[in-house]
C-alpha cells in the first residue's frame, strides 16, 4: 500500500483493517496455523500499530505451532507437489515470528502505518528546520 497515487490514508487504513479482519476470520477456522498467526500479527504490529499484546501472543503461538509442525515434518503427509511450499511456509512463519518479536521489543510498532509514516516525516522536517534555525542563530552570534 505504499506510494499509491491519490490513495487516502483512511482508504489505506480500511484495507489494512479489512485484511486483519480476514486473517482473524481465518484463525477461527485454523487457530493453530503459524502462517495465519504470523500474518495477523504483522498487520497489528506494523500496519495498524495497535493491539501489540495480541500481536505478541500471535507471534509466540505461531512459533510454538510452527515448531510442532517442523518436529513432526507435517508436510510429508501432503502430495509431493505441495511439500516444499508447505515446509517453506512453516519455516518462514517460525523465522519471521522471531524476527518480528525482536523488532517489537525494539519499539518497531506502526512503522508501515500511513499515519505514523506522516508523523515521522513531520518530525524529521521539524528537526531539520530547528537545526537550520540554530545554524542561522549561531552564525548571527558569531557576526558572520
SSE layout and pairing:
Blueprint: H1 9-29, H2 34-48, H3 52-72, H4 80-105, H5 114-141
What can you tell me about this protein's structure?
The chain is mainly α. It folds into 2 domains: 9-110, no CATH class; 113-144. The chain has 5 helices and no strands. Helix 2 runs antiparallel to helix 3, helix 2 packs parallel to helix 4 (80-105) and helix 3 (52-72) packs antiparallel against helix 4. It is elongated, with a radius of gyration of 21 Å.
List how many beta strands DSSP finds: 0
Anisotropy-based shape: elongated
Number of DSSP helices?
A: 5
Can you write the helix and strand succession as a string? Answer: HHHHH
Strand content: under 5%
Biggest beta-sheet profile: none
Contiguous runs where pLDDT drops below 50 for at least 5 residues: none
Cα-atom Rg, whole angstroms? 21 Å
Number of domains: 2
How many angstroms does the end-to-end distance come to? 48 Å
Arithmetic mean of pLDDT: 87
Amino acid at each position: 500500500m505504499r506510494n499509491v497515487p491519490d490513495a487516502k490514508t483512511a482508504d489505506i487504513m480500511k484495507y489494512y483493517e479489512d485484511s486483519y479482519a480476514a486473517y482473524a476470520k481465518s484463525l477461527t477456522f485454523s487457530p493453530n496455523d503459524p502462517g495465519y498467526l504470523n500474518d495477523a500479527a504483522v498487520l497489528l504490529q506494523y500496519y495498524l500499530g495497535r493491539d501489540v499484546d495480541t500481536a505478541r501472543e500471535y507471534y509466540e503461538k505461531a512459533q510454538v505451532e510452527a515448531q510442532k509442525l517442523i518436529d513432526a515434518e507435517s508436510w510429508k503427509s501432503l502430495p509431493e507437489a505441495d511439500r516444499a511450499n508447505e515446509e517453506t511456509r512453516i519455516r518462514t512463519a517460525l523465522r519471521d515470528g522471531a524476527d518480528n518479536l525482536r523488532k517489537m521489543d525494539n519499539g518497531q510498532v506502526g512503522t508501515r502505518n500511513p499515519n505514523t509514516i506522516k508523523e515521522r516525516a513531520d518530525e524529521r522536517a521539524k528537526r531539520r528546520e530547528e537545526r537550520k534555525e540554530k545554524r542561522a542563530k549561531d552564525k548571527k552570534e558569531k557576526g558572520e
